[in-house]
């Protein structure tokens, strides 16, 4: 440690420091002060963080802490903290621990009685939600979507009837496959917002009914590039007097071959509706 470093607390502390998700101007003055004055910066990718530090003229030493070594290296950092160091934790972009490393380190610090101080700052999911036009009073962050189609479909089935806004991160090489799987499970009318390259030059925040959004992304290869978040409007129950025409037509056809209750259940599953609403419509409208 050096005597020249000055921090807001003399107690050895782990600082959770958000970094910009694109626009370097979004870093806070407090974050710069902490990164300058701590003894060590624990970084997800020291090369990536090195470019950020160089841009702002910060020379603090870095220590690699990523998904593949965190459980082994976290204790090393805790021991440094207990020995008197102050450390900043950063990820490649945004707030650490939000789909980024840091959980094991923070847990060990708290168990060891080390002071943990979080700084507010950039976070892609909050940035996307604030401009999405979707309900923001209740939402859940679901992290990255599974890499395999079955896993994604299982996840979409899990949230199909969830009434709050659901937010996922996705990689560009899987975006079309994920949207197609989402369409299969949630149907073409569910409103979805694609937020990509947030705070960067080619930022896009575009919402459409899912059937239209899939076609829009397919038609423009540029929308298949960059860092992405997908925001899904929560489930909205459909009242009996506003059932989609396609659903009632399907029920009419199915009821000719099946008992009404079973036909209503099948139509409800296909169109992501409540079976009781369709069953009631059938009782009132079908002979």
From TrEMBL:
Compartment annotation:
Cytoplasm
Q: Where is the signal peptide?
A: none
Please provide the record's keywords in A-Z order.
Answer: Cytoplasm, Methyltransferase, rRNA processing, S-adenosyl-L-methionine, Transferase
GO terms of biological process kind: methylation
Q: Which SUPFAM superfamilies match?
A: Tetrapyrrole methylase
Q: Give the top-level enzyme category.
A: transferase
Task: Please report the stretch or stretches of sequence annotated as the RsmI HTH domain.
Answer: 242-284
- Protein's UniProt keywords contain rRNA processing: yes
Entry protein name: Ribosomal RNA small subunit methyltransferase I
